[in-house]
Structure formats: structure tokens, C-alpha cells
Amino acid sequence: MKKNIFLLLLSLSSFCFYAQKKELTPEDKVIDFLKVDKAPIYSGCEKKDITLQKKCFQNKIKNHFTRNFNTKIAKNLKLESGSYATYVIFTINKKGVISNIGAIGFHYKLEKEGIRVAKLLPKIKPGKKNGKVVAVKYTYPVIITIE
């Protein structure tokens, strides 16, 4: 039985060696928010000076999460007093659509809520790097304090 499982695993692993990784071109790469030349533009930030657009974007994201994140979930978990962080990670793709949403946090219910709220984000004008439209990765920390 062990021999059969070993042979099965060995044969499956050989497929992995033949799988080719697609090389990402510069156009396909996702750029970190802090490294873009021109930040993605959230609705309402268009008329801001270019130096203020990143700050405006961050404020709009913060307001979105503050309005939409259900903090009652944390209270229902009966957590001890303290601060709990959930990091919501997403990509603003080249078309301005929010994609590749994920979360890392203290509790899976808080992660799930962070993902839900990120899915509610509107379409956003994509960012630019070297004059070209790029996909931008953004991480938003949701900090919940229980007293």
C-alpha cells in the first residue's frame, strides 16, 4: 500500500517538472501601490493635485471600509480586550476592477468580512508606472479594538 502511494506521488510529481511557468512581461506584473508613479484614482479624487491623489485614494478606501465593515462580527466572537488586525489585499487591475482579493487576520470570520467589503469597492481608474497603465496591489489593514 505504501509502495503504491509512493509510486503515485512520484508519477504525479513528474508532471510538475514538465509544467512551464509563464514568464511575466512588464505589462503583466502587478506593481505595489507605493511604487506606482501615478496612483489609482478613486471617484472624487480626479481633480486633486497628483501629489494628493495617493492620500485621497487612501482616505476613500478607509472611508469605504469604515462604513461597510460589520464590527459586530468581532463583538460576537467574544474576543478578549485588545486590538486585532485583518489585512485585506487586493489588486486594481488594468481595467480598474478589484480582483485577487484575499485577507490575512486573527479570525477567519474577520477575513471573510474584509473580503466581502473589498468586493463592494467601485471601479477605480487604474494606476500608472512609466506612463503605462498597470495593475496595482493594495493592502488595507482593518484594525478592530475591543474594550
Plain-language structure description:
The protein has 147 residues and is an alpha+beta fold. It has one domain (23-146): Fusion Protein Consisting Of Minor Coat Protein, Glycine Rich Linker, Tola, And A His Tag, Chain: A, Domain 2 (2-Layer Sandwich), CATH 3.30.1150. The protein has helices at residues 2-18, 50-68, 72-76, 108-119, and strands spanning 30-32, 82-92, 98-105, 127-129, 132-146. Strands 1, 2, 3, 4 and 5 form a five-stranded mixed β-sheet that branches. It starts with a helix and ends with a strand. Mean pLDDT is 83; it is low at 1-26.
Please describe the topology of this protein.
Elements: H1 2-18, E1 30-32, H2 50-68, H3 72-76, E2 82-92, E3 98-105, H4 108-119, E4 127-129, E5 132-146
Parallel strand pairs: 1-5
Antiparallel strand pairs: 2-3, 2-5, 4-5
